[in-house]
Amino acid sequence: MENLIRMKGGFKNFGEIKALEDINFELHKNEVVGLLGDNGAGKSTLIKSLTGVYPIDKGELYIKGIKIDIHRYSVKEARKYGIETVYQERSLGDNQPLWRNIFIGRHNTNCFGYIKVKKEKEEALNILTNLIGLKGVGISPDSFVETLSGGERQGVAIGRAMYFESDIIVLDEPTTALSLKEVNKVLNFVEMIKKNGKSCIYITHNIYQIYSVSDRFVILDRGKIVGNYMRQDLSVEDLSNKLMMHAKSE
Description:
The chain has 250 residues and is an alpha/beta fold. The protein has one domain: 3-Layer(aba) Sandwich (Rossmann fold), CATH 3.40.50.300. α5 runs parallel beside α6. The radius of gyration is 19 Å and the shape is globular. The two termini are 34 Å apart. The mean pLDDT is 88.
């Protein structure tokens, strides 16, 4: 399978703390990977290393077959390679309409630098209705974020990531504090990511939410990868037992 991301022998320390140790991680084309582990397992550190927030101290990183200079890697560089991240923290402006949120920092402008408002609203409508299938009553490019539910807000953030030619979308605990109904909305958005031919890394500690939409599971424990499983090879109960086994070994 074609690798979009490959980390080989990755290490990351924060002082005396070994946050990541000898990490070998891959993400393939059109694949959803559930990145699992308890709090403090190293999930967020790994993701931030893959997306340029925390460059690794040692090891090799390849994106789409290109070897990355780990000492110069940044969020800006990650975006150039088609990597977008949706964090669990709010990533949208509540008091701004959806079209402005989608294009913030990357507006379509004319030769005089003015925003092409009509074009951006048209594109925003396309993203909402066709890319992520968000067709709730009253939802339009002019709707304000504060009127959306938690799941719908995450859907807009995911749609924004998909629109800007991103091949790799990283979701960091996107269902935190959401109701079951809203969780299902987010999972539907994850399915849309794969349907559109893109890949996703989904960070969570809740295997029951992510099991049905993942192709593969990677388990982290105390900064090390301790498990790598294809979904077809184990049930959700088996996966739960794997996680419990590692938790008991502490």
